[in-house]
Amino acid sequence: MRALLPALTHFEFKGFCKYFEDLVEMVDAPLLDNLIITFFYQFIFNTPQLAQFISCTPRFEVPDEVKISDRDVSITLLQKPVMAKT
């Protein structure tokens, strides 16, 4: 069963991708504006729930920033501005 979190607008996670996957598998956050994820370095990144979580949040398209270092991988997604119709 998934939990709907309509008030969640900012989510920052630091940890291993397995814990992130377990968490977002159970959460819908349709009004999320900012998502900042830092995965501690590991040899294999298996994150199918990350793609599912992002695709359920229509304000995100592609990552704004991806940083890879010898200790971690960081992904930042920010809300895309809504274009006014003329």
Structural class designation: alpha/beta
Q: How many β-strand stretches? A: 6
What percentage of the residues does DSSP assign to strands (E)? 25-35%
Distance between the termini: 41 Å
List low-confidence stretches. none
Shape: globular
**Helix and strand sequence:** EEHEEHEE
Return the average pLDDT rounded to an integer.
81
How many structural units, i.e. domains?
A: 1
Strand order of the largest sheet: 2-4-6-5
**Computed CA radius of gyration, to the nearest angstrom:** 14 Å
Helix content: 10-25%
User: Treating each run of at least 4 consecutive H or I residues as one helix, how many helices?
Assistant: 2
The largest sheet, given as strand count, sense and whether it forms a barrel, is:
4 strands, mixed
